[in-house]
Amino acid sequence: MMNASTSTFYTEIIGRLDQVRRRQLRVALVYGVLATLLITVVSLLVTTLLEGIFSFSTLGRTVLFIIEILAITTASIWFIIRPLLHVMGFFASENNHTLAVKVGSYFPHVRDRLLDALQIYESRENLTQHFSPALIDASFIDLYRDIQPLRFAEAVSDDRVKKIRKVAPLEVIKKRPPNRPIFGRCPMDGRTVLDSFFSSFHFNRL
Length: 206
Description:
By secondary structure, this protein is mostly helical. It has nine helices and no strands. The chain has helices at 4-54, 58-88, 96-106, 113-122, 124-127, 133-147, 159-165, 168-175, 191-199. α1 (4-54) crosses α6, α1 (4-54) packs parallel to α7 and α3 (96-106) runs antiparallel to α4 (113-122). The longest helix is centred in the N-terminal third of the chain and has 51 residues, at 4-54. It is elongated and about 80 Å long. The two termini are 42 Å apart.
């Protein structure tokens, strides 16, 4: 039977993997919000541009409106609601073993040792038939000492969030002069709404 310290180490490792899981879900949710925002802005701009150029009839504007609503709704479901359901626990998230592999891949000197340690602990009752409990303890504690100073959450990259924050349509609309139309002299009924929206929206760090 494993000693108390080994059990404590295992509990701490599981807690740190849970932090990885939460950060991964948070990054996915933030990315989803930004992606949906981008799709919404592009959809509004394209719709307004087409209406300004072609002056559609009532039927044409209705079709454009329906397409726009479908695009925004689909994006919201896929990029926001889906990850939000994962955060709330309605959908299963990645298990500890999968997260251990991800952490091990990020830290070269850990590699498969983290996953192996979890599997050894979780199968300890069967392993004691072939290995000394003291040997299993020593192996687990040795790994714990190597991973103790590591920040597991660093294994979750937020590069895609940083990239989408720099996407041209968002930056162009936010940074353009206030009296300058987005598309030259083309009339834009939705321009004021967009300007007001962006003036009240701020991107914060994760």
